Amino acid sequence: MQLCFALYGASNRVIRLYRTLLAPLGLTYPQYLVMLALWETAPRSVGELGQALDLDSGTLTPLLKRLEAQGLVVRTRDPRDERRVIISLTDQGAALREKAQPIPGEVICRLGGDLGELGALREALGALQQRLDAAQTPTKTSGS
Question: pTM score, two decimals?
C-alpha cells in the first residue's frame, strides 16, 4: 500500500470521528481547529492563525467569516496597521471552550486510550511534516 493511501484514509477517519463529536457544538472540524488555536492564544492576527494552523488566508477567511456569523469570534482591523485583521473570541466563543473540553479525551478513548502510542504517533507525524517541508524547499544546485 502506498503511504499516501494510508495517510489519506487515516485523515478521513479522524475527521469523521471529530465530526460526530463536534456536531452538538455546531462546529466543523476546521472550525474546531481555529477555535483550539484561539483558545490557546487570543486575540491573534489572521496571519498568526494561519501560521499556527498551516492554512493560507484564502482558506482561513471563509472559516473566520462563518465563525463570526455564529457569534464565536470578532474580526477587527488592527488600528496600528489597517492591513492586519485581528481575531478575538466573543464571550460565546470563550464559553464554548468548556463544552469542547471533553472532546480530546473522548477521541483518545475511542482510539484505544494508549497515551504512549498516541504520543509516539504524534511525534512521528510531526517529524514527517518537517521532512515534507524540507523536501519541498528548493535546494541549490552546483550550477547556481
Answer: 0.86
